[in-house]
Amino acid sequence: MPYHRGVQFVSDEDDDDDEGTVIYSRISSSASLRSRLMVTKACEPKTITTTPGLLGAGETETESEDQPLRQLPTARIVNSSGPLIPPTTLQQRLTPLLFSFSRWLSIVPAFLGTLYNIFCAIFPPQQSAGHRIDFIVSVLWAILTGYQCLALTTGLLRRWRVYYTPLPTLIRLLALQAICWPATQITLSVLDARRRPAICWAVIATTTCCSRAVQLWVTSNIVGGKEDPDRLSLRRWGGRRWDWNAVAWSCVFPAGVLYFIWAWTLALRREFDSC
């Protein structure tokens, strides 16, 4: 059988008529073409790379979860006369007001629910199956809901201020309210707040406490400055971690106290109704 030696093919087979060894030689044209392609490819610049300083650097880079996003430079107003004018103080004064207004919007459903339950506790609806004591307990659950909603929104605002510029932060605050308000209304409608007000608001408050616990974990890598607590930054060590002491006192303890009060009010109501 023929075998390859360099660029020649040599046949070892001998013919009976002693014609000799037949040698076939061939120069491969594909070898030179392959070498030219490899040289051309090596000389071409990379269009996508993650090496800083090279062409296309940064196109495939992604921000890590615990790294703050790069802040965009502050926009400047160009005057017709030529010099650059820094932004006015109106934006600096308006931004905190918008943040505070959007943050306090989180308590609107709980605030309206508190007023409604107080009114029903004083003037029980005739068509309602709930007892007066149920509306009083619902007031407590609604107050806890408002407190946890405000704390949840405040904690997320601290995180968003580190990661995003003011406009995306404001959009996220409003989007959070756009989710929480309908969720509260759907819960009250599905569980029928007129018949079982205490159950509805207990479910809402308990769910909010769970969300608050998750928020404590999400924002556990956000720390404030020693001299200026409002200057927020990322923790340089450890990342996120569960602070079970904070979860217990901020979420479990207040909900547990209300469950204890609710259980005793139901027991006392049955005793007085049976008398």
TrEMBL record:
UniProt KW Transmembrane helix keyword: yes
Domain of life per record: Eukaryota
Keywords: Membrane, Transmembrane, Transmembrane helix
GO CC annotation: endoplasmic reticulum membrane
Any single GO BP term: protein N-linked glycosylation
InterPro entries given in the database record: N-glycosylation_EOS1 (IPR021100)
Keyword Transmembrane belongs to the record: yes
Chain ranges passing through the membrane: 104-123, 135-157, 246-268
PANTHER family: N-GLYCOSYLATION PROTEIN EOS1
Protein name: N-glycosylation protein-domain-containing protein
Organism for this UniProt entry: Thelephora terrestris
Phylogenetic classification of the source organism: Eukaryota, Fungi, Dikarya, Basidiomycota, Agaricomycotina
